[in-house]
Amino acid sequence: MEFEFVLSKYNYESFIPQVSKALEKRTELISRKRYPKMWKYIDSLSSRDKAKEEKLKKRRKRYKVYGIFLILIGLFLLIPSLMKPEELLMPLFTGAFATGLGLLYFLYGRNRGKEKPTSFNKAAIKLFNEYEKIPSGEVKVTFTDDKVRLAEDVSIDYSEINNFFITEDLIIVIWREKITVLQKKDLATCNVEAFTDFITRKSQDLFEVVDLMPN
């Protein structure tokens, strides 16, 4: 049985985060094998950090609600006061204070800004730029019972695969410390489920199949 991928134009929005995640996971897997005791300690800290993050999320949500409430009260007092500022001086100051305080609460409650690109993001972007040069519909990658036929007449055995990552939109193969990224939508024969079952059977003790699908 053969599974053939006909490579088409890659999507930047799905490629970068999913490839970056796979590269990060690959690094983690290698590190876990080398330093199991260290990762046991890291995992214990991560569980604590996760609990703290949940509390922070709830707190930010609360502050956003408080902020909106104060802004509405402030505007309710402020707008009429602007019509007659001399007569309604106290409501004017109160409305301005409530509006300002509400904005502070709301800004505190907002989610954090975008994080800076990591080394994995940068590597994924560099890889995407290379994949942009692949002519759409002209390159095929085929998985057979015996081997994997890659572009430019390169074939590898399944024993040469290091890791096999399955993401929401991609199939990412690490082989001989190199990487091949395939889009699920480019699978021209059968379906993704059948291909995943095939790869799982092929992996046996040769390589690890890692599911990175969102929960």
Characterise the protein shown here.
With 215 residues, the chain is an alpha+beta fold. It has 2 domains: 3-37 and 119-211, PH-domain like; 46-109. Helices cover 54% and strands 18% of the residues. It has helices spanning 12-34, 36-83, 89-109, 119-131, 192-203; strands spanning 3-6, 140-143, 147-150, 154-157, 161-166, 170-175, 178-183, 208-211. It has a 4-stranded antiparallel β-sheet, with no helix packed on it. Helix 1 packs antiparallel against helix 2, helix 1 (12-34) crosses helix 4 and helix 2 (36-83) packs antiparallel against helix 3. The longest helix has 48 residues, at 36-83. It starts with a strand and ends with a strand. The mean pLDDT is 85.
The 3D shape can be described as elongated
- The CATH class of the largest domain: Mainly Beta
- Helix residue percentage: 40-55%
Trace the largest sheet across and list its strands.
Answer: 1-2-3-4
The counted number of beta strands is 8
DSSP summary: helix tally: 5
Along the chain, the helix and strand elements come as: EHHHHEEEEEEHE
